[in-house]
Specification:
The complex is a heterodimer of chains A (218) and B (230).
Chain A: H1 10-20, H2 31-37, H3 41-65, H4 74-96, H5 98-104, H6 115-125, H7 130-160, E1 162-163, E2 171-172, H8 187-217
Antiparallel strand pairs in A: 1-2
Chain B: H1 2-15, H2 20-64, E1 70-79, E2 85-94, E3 100-112, E4 115-124, E5 129-138, H3 152-156, E6 161-162, E7 177-179, E8 189-191, H4 197-220, H5 222-227
The chains are: A mainly alpha (218), B alpha+beta (230).
């Protein structure tokens, strides 16, 4: 990668999570919530925003406190901080909509053990300043939301023939004669779509590297 | 005492980063901070969450009692199988003219596969039938146990479930019980969902306990329900 020499610029830090090191498509982290909640676009939004909130707040706090936290108890400290923000999100979603809360099920509470968040806390926020940590968190959060939406849009469109169902902005895509392909809403659909998209993203990455190698030779 | 101990431990901790005081201080401080933050957020959202739950119950009552346009909440108390006094809430639904359409009652069982299952069911006193069921709280396995919320064949059990009272109106004429999928059909039998036996059994058990506790009380207070329209 081009940013191997010297410290990465702010833009690189931000874009890395979105694309080059996308948590789902490249690092394959957090695939459990990815497979579980992506059957509706609205769930993807809510999950993505929740994870981003927890990432940003815990990243900020951890990077501010990084010199006070003794090395031996850092994981325990990170978990306390992450769990606090997850509980806040949990209350917030309950107060916004109980139906949304039900459809996300246990996966909101399970953000505590989402390896994306602990991973960023350990690998980035505990070693960098607050501004950069937040930028990294926003990038990773957007990358995660983007990946969830990539799955959710396809699964909801094929499995239910709609976009944004259960919201005021519901759009019907294929008209009344569409027979929903309900396996896409069910768990196997999640595996199919994630598998296909991993192939697609790996292929795109490989093609870009080949092109770069060709231009380097020429 | 504590301050002395801390003062004595501080230089030691500086020499040796493995000292336990800084660790305790960090974890204790973080836990305190987290506790304060959470109690603030809880107080801020508590009221709205309770309101959301009330709205959900209200919507469920209208859904369960077709034709109802107004509702009123009654508090009653009955004695359960062990003879203990148990208070419960009855949501009475009335149509436009103020006629009692039916009563929505709550049932719950703590032995579902994922913990507590709580639901409302609609009861029509004049036909002595349960006319519908709606799950309020369910932590069952997604895709298996949580089909008690959506499985049409299962919900059909509760569309016109006969729950007549015995002649002296103090108990159910026949118990409500779980039956294997496809093997039901008898009076008071609730056919389960295959693959969700534990959840279906919990629902049937909750239904039986709630009906045998509450329906005799509803019968006793029927005139009160009919006259105290909202």
């Amino acid at each position: 990668m081009s940013d191997q020499q010297g410290p990465p610029s702010s833009m690189d830090v931000f874009l890395r999570g979105l694309w080059q090191e996308n948590p789902v498509f490249v690092m394959l982290l957090g695939t459990c919530p990815t497979l579980a909640v992506t059957n509706k676009v609205i769930n993807c939004f809510a999950m993505g925003v929740s994870v981003m909130f927890v990432l940003v707040m815990s990243g900020l706090l951890i990077s501010l406190l990084r010199s006070f936290i003794p090395k031996q108890v850092r994981i325990a400290s990170f978990i306390i901080i992450i769990a606090t923000f997850v509980t806040i999100v949990d209350y917030a979603i309950q107060s916004i909509s109980l139906d949304l809360y039900d459809s996300l099920g246990a996966f909101i509470q399970l953000i505590v053990v989402n390896c994306i968040i602990l991973g960023r806390a350990e690998a980035f926020a505990s070693k960098n300043g607050p501004a950069k940590s937040m930028l990294d968190a926003v990038g990773m959060g957007l990358g995660f939301t983007f990946a969830l939406l990539c799955l959710g849009v396809i699964r909801e469109a094929l499995g239910n023939g709609t976009l944004m169902m259960d919201t005021p902005f519901e759009i019907s895509l294929f008209g009344p004669n569409f027979a929903p392909w309900s396996i896409m809403i069910l768990p196997p659909g999640g595996f199919f779509v994630l598998g296909l998209e991993l192939i697609l993203f790996a292929w795109l990455r490989k093609r870009r590297e080949q092109r770069r190698a060709q231009t380097a030779q020429a | 005492m504590t301050t002395q101990a801390q003062a004595a431990a501080a230089p030691a901790a500086q020499h040796n980063s493995g000292g336990s005081i800084p660790m305790l201080r960090t974890l204790g401080g973080l836990a305190l901070l987290s506790g304060c933050l959470l109690s603030l957020v809880y107080q801020g959202t508590n009221e709205r969450i309770a309101r959301n739950f009330e709205a959900r119950v209200r919507d469920a009552v209208f859904e369960l009692l077709p034709g109802a346009t107004q509702q009123k909440v009654f508090e009653f108390s009955g004695s359960d199988e062990a003879g203990k006094d148990t208070p419960f809430t009855a949501y009475a639904g009335y149509d436009d003219t103020g006629r009692l359409v039916g009563v929505a009652l709550e049932a719950s069982d703590g032995n579902g596969y994922g913990g507590e299952i709580r639901f409302l069911y609609g009861y029509q006193p004049d036909t002595q039938q349960v006319v519908g069921m709606k799950v309020l709280l369910c932590k069952e396995t997604p895709g298996l146990g949580d089909r008690i919320k959506t499985d049409e064949a299962f919900l059909d059990n509760f569309k016109a479930l006969e729950v007549p009272l015995a002649d002296d109106a103090s108990a159910l004429a026949h118990p409500l019980a779980y039956a294997k999928p496809g093997k039901g059909g008898g009076p008071g039998q609730i056919e389960g969902i295959s693959g969700a036996t534990i959840s279906s059994k919990a629902v049937a058990r909750a239904m039986h306990n709630s009906a045998s506790l509450m329906l005799p009380v509803i019968r006793k207070h029927l005139s009160e329900l009919q006259e105290n329209k909202p």
